[in-house]
Specification:
Rossmann fold, seven-stranded parallel sheet, globular, 3 domains, 24 strands, 17 helices, alpha/beta, 539 residues, single chain
């Protein structure tokens, strides 16, 4: 094992939890639950025994690996990490991404598929139109795979946890090997997800690391954003000016305001400060994600790269987990305990680093959203009662997280189990008939209407749409965001695909339909800020 880690993963001395996992997988003891700190090499641990098969030429675990994550941004980043490791073994090992923006493996038949839980669900239920008449293939591929569920705590939604619980129970009964990995799963959720799954103590790995870095925590008295104004003092601004800084804000509107304020007050240009959230089109999001990584110290080929210039990354929850970089200063709005630990995992991440974390309160008037108000209150109370809390101590971090009461809804889990079985049996071809979250998405397509040509307004609009790359210029948003934008007359046209003309055309909006496409004029979009109209509290 040590030789494999050193040769192919650039890890000299594997941690004890990595060694435990290696032995369990090779002895076919599934399922496995892994709870280990952020930055403890869970990704490397998950892929090591699987990749070993290609070195030895013996596939005793599974012929393929499906790596499931909660967010697209995590999928893209992790796939690139895995590709670097794989390149050391063989150029013929295929690593593919499967999600809405990059649907490269709808059949799940690559050697390694990195995907989202949504796409995994659609593949399992055979409810993706992308696979055409070959509806059996994704489910069959899953049945012959090792399935890894990483960052399994991040959904924070009883409905989604119910879906996940149903999937885990089906995999368990089908004897498909799977692993659940997390840094911050409360005991309540662990018990709920595995209630009907036999998980021995041996199959539950709890990893702990020596504390090799430190983060000083302080609680700000006033919100970072209050009464439509950004509240960042001159003292804190000077810290931002002199340190590689990550600022995490809970809502898009507030993140945009903080971005504008900090950029203007420090007179930074777009090469020194980056804003990231969920309302960017695909091509801009990729550019900004890469820029964010270049501004903050990060690892490349096992070595820490420290950028020379000052850099600031402002983000919502999209950088909360799975991003391997290390800020010196972290400013964050208060969030539930598990979210704060994930955010702290992006600060002083590497050995012998010291960082500072300042936690800002939020206003009571919907400022706590998208989180439950009760979880925010419990988190603040715990922090106030534990002034010496060391967030880098995994044991203390687990105590912190266990104040949260996440769980799957038992009734919904049973109901979902039946729905999933029916989808598999009857090969339901409509993805909208099965969903992962309570909220449903719509898709905004950013179109430059000035590019359109023609005599009539309708012709100009349709010509502009024809000149637009729909996939590259689409943003998935919650239907609640769509309602707000339509109500404010920011969005007033729906896009339908005309099968006879074989092109997208604009039509008037009669109702807001989930999974449908709507036109957003480019005047309401900024490549550095995203969708600019205020869509209220929605993230």
């Amino acid at each position: 094992m040590e030789g494999f880690y050193k040769t192919y993963l650039s890890i000299e001395n594997p941690f004890s939890h990595q060694a435990q996992f290696w032995d369990l997988v090779l002895s076919d003891q599934f399922p496995i639950l892994v709870k280990a700190p952020t930055g403890s090499g869970k990704t490397e641990m998950a892929i090591a025994p699987f990749l070993r098969q290609f070195v030895e030429g013996r596939f005793t675990i599974a012929p393929r690996l499906i790596y499931v994550l909660p967010m697209r941004v995590l999928v893209n980043t992790l796939a690139e990490r895995i590709k670097k490791y794989v390149s050391k073994i063989s150029p013929f090992i295929s690593v593919k991404i499967q999600h809405g923006d990059v649907p490269n493996s709808p059949f799940f038949i690559a050697d390694i598929v990195v995907t989202t839980l949504d796409q995994f669900l659609y593949g399992f239920a055979r409810s993706s139109k992308q696979v055409g008449k070959h509806i059996d293939m994704p489910a069959g591929a899953i049945a012959s795979s090792l399935v890894i569920f990483d960052e399994a705590h991040m959904y924070r939604d009883e409905f989604t946890f119910s879906i996940m619980r149903a999937l885990l129970e089906i995999l368990y009964q089908s004897k498909i090997p799977f692993v659940v990995m997390t840094a911050t799963m409360p005991e309540s959720l662990e018990k709920s997800l595995f209630e009907n799954i036999d998980l021995s103590k041996k199959q539950k790995i709890v990893g702990d690391l020596p504390i090799e870095s430190g983060v000083k925590i302080s609680l700000a008295e006033e919100p970072m954003y209050n009464e439509d104004e950004v509240n960042i003092s001159e003292e804190i601004l000077q810290k931002i000016k002199n340190k590689k800084t990550l600022i995490v804000v809970n809502q898009v509107k507030r993140a945009q305001k903080v971005y504008e304020e900090v950029k203007n007050r420090l007179e930074f240009n777009n090469n020194q400060i980056v804003l990231l959230h969920s309302r960017f089109i695909k091509k801009d999001r990729e550019i900004l994600e890469n820029k964010a990584l270049s501004l903050i110290p990060h690892k490349e080929n096992g070595k820490v790269i420290v950028p020379e210039e000052l850099g600031i990354v402002i983000s919502t929850q999209v950088l909360e987990a799975g991003i391997d970089f290390s800020a010196e200063l972290l400013l964050t709005e208060v969030a539930p305990a598990d979210a704060l630990i994930q955010r702290a995992g992006r600060c002083a991440r590497y050995k012998e680093e010291n960082g500072e974390m300042i936690i800002f309160p939020v206003k009571d008037d919907k400022g706590f959203l998208p989180y439950e108000k009760d979880y925010i209150a419990k988190t603040i109370e715990w922090l106030n009662n534990h002034p010496n809390f060391n967030i880098k101590d995994f044991s203390q971090a687990c105590d912190f997280v266990n104040i949260l009461d996440y769980r799957a809804n038992d009734y919904e889990a049973r109901d979902t189990l039946i729905d999933l079985y029916e989808c598999v049996l009857y090969a339901d071809e409509a993805p909208k008939n099965i969903q992962l979250r309570n909220g449903k998405p719509i898709y905004l397509v950013v179109v430059d209407l000035a590019r359109g040509e023609g005599r009539k307004k309708e012709d100009k609009i349709n010509d502009a749409i024809a000149k637009t790359n729909i996939r590259e210029n689409t943003i998935s948003v919650d239907i609640g965001v769509g309602w707000k934008l339509i109500k404010d007359n920011v969005v007033n046209l729906r896009l339908d695909f005309d099968k006879d003309k074989k092109r997208w055309v604009a039509r008037e909006i009669n109702e807001v339909v989930p999974f449908s496409y709507y036109l957003l004029d480019i005047n309401y979009y900024n490549s550095f800020k995203g969708v600019t109209p205020d869509a209220g509290i929605f993230i």
